[in-house]
Design brief:
It comes from Sinorhizobium alkalisoli. The protein is of the alpha/beta class. It has 3 domains: 3-30 and 347-436, no CATH class; 57-339, no CATH class; 455-709, Nucleotide cyclase, GGDEF domain (Alpha-Beta Plaits, 2-Layer Sandwich), CATH 3.30.70. A hairpin with a 6-residue loop joins strand 25 (624-632) and strand 26. The radius of gyration is 50 Å and the shape is rod-shaped.
């Protein structure tokens, strides 16, 4: 394990630990995301509507238009009870508060008007009493609401038994309740609270508290109490977790067991709204009697009386995204219990999700660090798919609410962080490579190393290259006069200045060999016009050396000028990574490399600083070239035709060079036939050369001694002076 990998693992594990602790703290945002996920599950697979003995008698807009605005007088509510009882309702539960006296009662109206005999007023009907008599002896359940003021507690019509630890501190807290009229309170068969989400800040009703507690007494909700009255049961049985206080796991009412949360809440598994669930109160109170369909719907059913009228503001949002009357949710609670289709979030769900975050995070960190981000991504996607499928199957098959979102989200964060770290490290290492080798390799080679898979492998390819060798003249003499440190400074100054021209002209610096430079063009990537770019680099080196000498950059004084020789050849060579697996160089080998090196050595004999082979010269266009003869190079059985590079395109098109070419051709022709005019042409060539390039003086001075380099066979190339 490298140090970078160790640091990456430690950082990744620290992120995993932080995310695991964050999930363990379960902040509100995570709870909200979890709730939304479970809502989506219900929308995809809602509880199917079943024909169960549960109905809602709806005080709807039609009922209000027919019987007047709300609140209705309680003698009408008594009539509603009478009708429902006659229709065979098993239970009549009111999702309505009866906290104040009925102001529409004749007795109350006469008392408020005043001026009437109190004895007469007392004999007038009282609607509360009428309603109380109507519910007496009938399976009627009244509701109460929650209040933050007062100390009223409604009577509890059933007993509570429990197994395990005390459950009194588990349910939501009842501080106070809205009062129920005394006569109604006494005559009701059951009393339950109608609050649907007392401690939730969300507008969506997802869980209904079946039990409330004031610390010493438990109070059932309207739906649970209705189910108890329907069965004629007298006691609720609460089951708690073993050896865990303040926890409820199951509420049994009669023949039905209801799995609940630790706080005694039922996760609502909502079904879509259906008209079959509702019977209009106007239809029940119709003067002409009740229809057969309405009677069949009510008979034997647990009936909840409530309102869907928009002006009465009892509209709630469900997990399905619907807005429904609050009374519908009470009815759906009983439907859910009767159908046995429950949702539950088991005690171990949080632990499983926290553990999955920790394990998946650690796995992704290790895969990203030691294998590859791509493999880690594939593994992460597999984990995501597995989490989604497992969570969905748990919901559909077992009604279990397991959150896939937190493990997926936190796993994505972990993978992103680990991948980002790895790429940052890779980028840092890439910058190190650039800093270390950018002075020696061309940008194209660096790009290939960085972006080509297996670029740094052993092996080579045969390619046409233009090769260059550069050597310092009289280096042995120079080094003898200097201390070793001064020699190093001299070489660094010279070679750094010259090597930049290789890179600037898309070349590749192969190596530095003492006082020499080896470079080539057209590898590792194709370089169009590579012979011309190599020659342009050589001409730039000539200008740079003249500038350095003129500025006395080497500290040798004006009397001692540094000179170089440059040999260039174009030919087939093998280029690639050569060496051992643990250490290799990107280089070129082959006969073309040897020829380029021999051409550079020939600069000493010819007396000129830049020489190119005939193959290179043929590929050039617009350069000022002069025939330098055919030389026998070391190791070659045939002579090699060479050309002196006098200048670039501007010089090649100048009248001065045109005249020099003409005279040079005449000189070579005279030299080949040993004509007496050779000396005259040589003098003319020296004179013309002085106006073109001072460096040609030594070149022409040595030509008479190199007569064998210009055989009698005339060449078109020499005549053209290219």
């Amino acid at each position: 394990m490298t140090r970078a990998q160790l640091v990456g693992v430690l950082i990744g594990l620290a992120i995993v630990a932080a995310l695991t602790l964050l999930r363990a703290s379960d902040p509100p945002l995570l709870k909200f995301a979890r709730d939304v996920t479970f809502d989506e599950y219900q929308r995809l697979a809602p509880r199917p509507f079943e024909e169960l003995p549960v109905r809602v008698v709806d005080i709807d807009e039609t009922s209000l238009r027919q019987f007047g605005q709300w609140p209705w007088p309680r003698d009408r509510m008594a009539a509603l009870v009478d009708r429902l009882s006659d229709m065979g309702a098993a239970v009549i539960a009111f999702d309505i508060l009866f906290a104040e006296p009925d102001r529409l009662s004749p007795r109350s109206v006469m008392r408020d008007v005043g001026g009437f005999d109190p004895a007469l007023t007392a004999r007038l009907p009282d609607n509360d009493e009428i309603f109380a008599r109507a519910i007496a002896g009938r399976p009627t359940v009244l509701g109460f609401g929650l209040s933050n003021t007062g100390n009223y507690r409604p009577p509890v019509k059933a007993g509570f038994a429990f197994t395990g630890e005390s459950p009194f501190d588990a349910p939501p807290r009842l501080v106070a309740a809205t009062p129920i009229r005394p006569g109604l309170e006494a005559n009701a068969a059951g009393i339950g609270h109608i609050s649907l989400n007392p401690e939730s800040s969300s507008a969506v009703v997802r869980a209904v508290p079946l039990i409330l507690s004031d610390g010493g007494q438990l109070f059932p909700n309207l739906a649970l109490e209705s189910l108890r009255v329907a069965q004629g049961a007298s006691t609720y049985l609460l089951t708690g977790a073993t050896n865990v206080a303040d926890t409820i796991t199951l509420i049994r009412v009669g023949d039905f067991g209801v799995p609940v949360t630790a706080a005694g809440e039922l996760w609502l598994y909502v079904s879509p709204e259906r008209p079959e669930r509702y019977v209009s109160a106007a239809e029940v109170l119709a003067p002409g009697g009740v229809s057969a369909e309405a009677r069949a719907a009510i008979e034997g059913s647990i009936v909840f009386v409530g309102t869907s009228a928009a002006g009465l503001l009892d509209i709630r949002a469900t997990a399905l995204g619907d807005n429904v009357p609050g009374v519908s949710l009470h009815a759906q609670t009983v439907e859910q219990i009767l159908s046995g289709r429950f949702l539950s979030r088991p005690d171990w769900a949080d632990g499983l999700e926290i553990l999955s975050i920790a394990l998946a995070g650690c796995l992704l960190v290790l895969l990203t660090t030691f294998v590859s981000p791509a493999v880690a991504l594939a593994c992460g996607l597999s984990i995501t798919a597995l989490a989604l499928v497992a969570s969905w199957l748990a919901f559909v098959q077992g009604g279990l609410l397991l959150d896939p979102l937190a493990p997926i989200f936190f796993g994505s964060i972990t993978h992103f962080a680990a991948t980002a770290y790895r790429f940052l490290v890779s980028d840092r290492e890439r910058r190190v490579v650039r800093r270390a080798f950018g002075q020696y390799l061309s940008p194209s080679l660096l790009y290939r190393i960085e972006h080509t898979r297996n670029a740094l492998r052993l092996g080579g390819d045969d390619r046409e290259l233009t090769l260059m060798f550069v050597d310092v003249r009289n280096f042995t003499e120079i080094s003898e006069r200097l201390a070793p440190a001064e020699v190093v400074r001299f070489l660094n100054t010279l070679l750094d200045a010259l090597s930049h021209h290789v890179i600037d002209n898309e070349g590749t610096l192969d190596k530095f060999i003492g006082d020499s430079i080896m470079a080539f063009w057209n590898a590792p990537v194709d370089v169009s016009g590579h012979p011309g770019k190599a020659v342009h680099a050589a001409l730039a080196m000539r200008d740079t050396l003249a500038r350095l000498n003129g500025a006395d950059a080497f500290g040798f004084g004006e009397a001692r000028q540094v000179a170089i020789g440059i040999g260039i050849h174009t030919g087939l060579a093998c280029v690639g990574n050569m060496g051992a697996e643990i250490h290799f160089n990107y280089s070129a080998v082959g006969d073309a490399v040897n020829i380029a090196a021999r051409i550079e050595s020939a600069c000493k004999d010819i007396g000129f600083d830049i020489l190119v082979s005939e193959t290179t010269a043929e590929a050039l266009g617009g350069c000022a070239l002069l025939d330098a003869g055919a030389l026998p190079l070391k190791g070659k059985t045939t002579r090699t035709r060479l050309f002196a590079v006098v200048g670039g395109k501007a010089l090649a098109t100048s009248p001065e060079f045109f005249e020099l070419q003409r005279v040079h051709g005449q000189l070579i022709a005279a030299l080949q036939v040993r004509s007496p005019d050779m000396r005259r042409f040589l003098s003319m060539a020296k004179l013309k050369a002085a106006a073109v390039a001072p460096g040609l003086q030594e070149f022409y001075r040595r030509i008479p001694r190199r007569a064998e380099h210009f055989p009698a066979v005339k060449t078109t190339r020499g005549e053209a002076g290219e």
